[in-house]
Amino acid sequence: MLHNEARELLVAGYEKTHDAAAIAEAYSVSIRTVYRLVKEKRERGSVELRTSQRGRKAVLSEKDKEAIRQCIDEQSDITVEEIRERLELSASYSTVERAINAMGYTLKKKSLHASERERVRCGGKTQAMERNDNT
Questions:
Q1: Residues 30-52: pLDDT tens digits?
Q2: Which residues contact 44 (CB under 8 A, 6 or more apart)?
Q3: Three-class SS state of 101
């Protein structure tokens, strides 16, 4: 891969000589690379490497993260799933959870007190597990 200065010199050399084969040999690249860089210079005005476009793009924007922070500040016991539903985020549960952790918040499991639980007592007979010793 050529660095930015070499790319500029390559294009400048081609524009003076219009000899793609000689330029390609001098810079140890293919003729196709010479033509591609010249086309890039013509269309974009630059042949610099586009490093800002590399890598995986963030799913949550800064605006999303600020909205998450506001939700947590308003309701401290809100769950990750409730945040995703309220803000209509397309990000996965773990992505939102990692963003919350990066903000410095800790997640706690929401436990219900005995009076808050709605458990129906079993009115019928319970089935006992039987052990099969015939093995």
A1: 999 999 999 999 999 989 888 77
A2: none
A3: helix
